[in-house]
Amino acid sequence: MGGGQVATHFDLVIRRGLIADGSGGPLVEGDVAVTGGQIAAVGRVEGTGREEIDADGRLVTPGFVDIHTHYDGQVTWEQRLAPSSNHGVTTAVMGNCGVGFAPCAPEHRELLIKVLEGVEDIPEIVMAEGLPWTWESYPDYLATLAQRRADLDFASQLPHAAVRVHVMGQRGADREAPTAADLDAMTAIVAEAVRAGALGVTTSRSIGHRTPDGELAPTVGADEAELHALARGLRRAGAGVLQLIGSQGAHDPIEEVALFRRLTATSGGPLSFSLMTSAHFPDHARLYLDALDAANRDGEPPIRGQVFPRPVGVILGLDLSFHPFVFTPGYQQIAHLPLAQRVEALRDPDRRARILAEPSEHPNPIFRYFASQDAELYVLAEDPDYEPTADAKVGALAAARGVSPRELIYDLMVDSGGLAVFLLAANNYQGGDLEPVRELLQHPHTIVGLGDGGAHYGTISDGSYPTTLLTHWTRDRTRGPKITLAAAVRMLTRPGAEAVGLLDRGLLRPGLRADLNIIDVDRLRLHRPAAVWDLPAGGRRLVQKTEGYALTMVNGTITYREDEPTGALPGRLVRNPATRGRR
After folding, report:
1. 230 closest CA partner among 184, 273, 199
2. Which residues partner with 204 through β-bridges?
3. Of 69, 242, 285, 441, which shows the fewest CB atoms inside 10 Å?
4. Residue 456: its pLDDT value, please?
């Protein structure tokens, strides 16, 4: 750590903090000075600040960089990009998983909304009312974003589904094979988007990505030639990353990583993909890691796995998108009622008996799966445990009480006034502990991500993962080795920034952006997810409050003090720095 300071007066000086600078090096007590939106000095700071903050006993970190979010819609209708901004994130990268809203001709708006509703659990009415649709091309979309102000910086990636539908219309939505002319048009759109400022292009190969009616998303099943057409667009632009959701079990991991390497040979740039453990394919995570080790030895652009530091799954509850009875006829009769009235209706013994006996019916197999895993659920307490033991499963709790899992869930929801929530750990909890996840986190070819902020409003609350990484993994874990604070902070900062080419952030270094956090680690706490109804058209979303973020700063401006927003909105659209000025 060094100073290189010339000025004796600064905008802000943070004194006596425990500095984790994002490099992964040892924590050092010292000062950080900020001037003009940049870090001016780190270490022992001489001179004074217009404002001085005593950070004695608290952690000072770079602002966190979340490279996997879905704020594509939310950023057009509101200025606080929560939940990410509540958890120390100062830069969010959106447009992941191949889904988004640009390019989009007027006649395709409803189609893209349906895709986002199914894949990302964003209610149709929220998008219909919230999206201004002031764009058609992707550069037009970025021009709209450039006028927006937010509490963190935001960058965008081009979504393959929107490109496919824009070029092919209904044929694209129906997953028909593209013509040579279609492929050329896709290549041109990718190049145009990256030159305009997109960080890259994204796609999905996952059969879990479907519309509400169960139809596969437009990108699923796209052949290799189509993926190379996207990669050629990056090559033509001379920059950009390729992000994708892999096949998640549908293809052999070795073969899939070989495909990734062929794509990077075409694009000339890096690639990242979602990587998690799965009980259905217990050996796949290890095979992916071995394949990454082999693929990254050749000196070609890096291939990285995006990993998540806790179980990947959904949150279920009476006031959320899913619970075990949501698709039963008896529940559907009262689903429209306000929560308190629904709870009262569910207290009726006859209705209880009827609902418990009824099967769930829905055309989307993924939705049916979420609503059918009664025994596999975990009850989330006010202080949620993201590494629960097997005896905490609903199946085990129900057996101990001599009732069925469905009966126990029903009664817990009613007795709590509809506030009980449950975690379905669909992935990343193989074997009932997080040891395999620790291996993913600490592997040299992985980066932390998958927070999904701005999506899954009624099913997932994963934008809070920075707080889990800093509490569970460094302080609270009892069932295995911990991770050092320095390593955890590095995972949340510099590697993600480097992976998407944003080299002006992610470290506390003089000359870099003044994005930073002051954190009271001893007091840091994550609350249970809860539903609020504050989206456009009164739409619902999950929020997960936290305590312990003493200060968050974006570009030299304080956005949060003691976990509360200041109202400042210094966040701006971040265009691809590698193509800035080429348009």
Report:
1. 184
2. 245
3. 441
4. 92
Rounded Cα distance, 376 and 403, in Å: 15
Are the C-beta atoms of residues 61 and 579 closer than 8 Å to each other? no
DSSP per position, 407-453: HHHHHHHHHTTT--EEEEEEES-GGGSSHHHHHHHT-TTEEE----T
Tell me what pLDDT residue 208 has: 86
pLDDT in tens, 215-247: 999 999 999 999 999 999 999 999 999 999 987
Cβ atoms of 94 and 154 within 8 Å: the answer is: yes
CA distance 288 to 255: 10
Q: Which residues touch 357 (CB under 8 Å, ≥6 apart)?
A: none
Question: End-to-end alpha-carbon separation of the chain, Å?
Answer: 38
What interhelical angle do 284-295 and 253-267 show, nearest 10?
Answer: 30
Question: pLDDT tens for residues 143-153?
Answer: 999 999 999 99
Q: How far is CA 271 from CA 93, 157, 305, in A?
A: 15, 13, 9
Give how far Cα 90 sits from Cα of 67, 380, 413, 514, Å.
11, 28, 36, 10
Output the six-digit token pair for 174.
Answer: 């129906």
CB proximity list for 244: less than 8 A, separation 6 or greater: 98, 202, 203, 204, 205, 271, 272, 273, 274
Residue 439 to residue 499: CA distance in whole angstroms: 20
Cis check for the bond before 103: say yes or no (omega within 30 of 0). yes
Q: How far apart are CA 321 and CA 317, in angstroms?
A: 8
The two beta strands, 241-245 and 200-204, are parallel
**Cis, peptide link before residue 83, omega less than 30° from 0:** yes
Beta-bridge partner residues of 367: none
- Kindly give, in sequence order, each residue whose CB lies less than 8 Å from that of residue 258, ignoring residues fewer than 6 positions away: 291, 295
For residues 448 and 305, give the distance between their C-alpha atoms in angstroms, rounded to a whole number: 8
| CB contact at 8 A, 84 and 451 | yes
Length of the chain: 583
What is the spatial distance between Cα 354 and Cα 40, in angstroms, rounded to a whole number?
A: 67
The mean of the pLDDT values for the chain is: 95
DSSP state at residue 473: I
Give 10-residue mean pLDDT values along the chain (583 residues): 63 98 98 98 95 97 98 97 97 97 97 91 93 98 98 98 97 97 98 98 92 90 97 98 85 94 98 94 94 92 97 95 96 96 98 95 90 96 95 97 98 97 94 94 96 93 97 97 98 98 98 98 96 94 95 98 98 95 59
Predicted model pTM: 0.95
| Chain centroid, CA 503 distance in Å | 21
Q: How far apart are CA 475 and CA 462, in angstroms?
A: 19
CA nearest to 501, candidates 289, 239, 112: 239
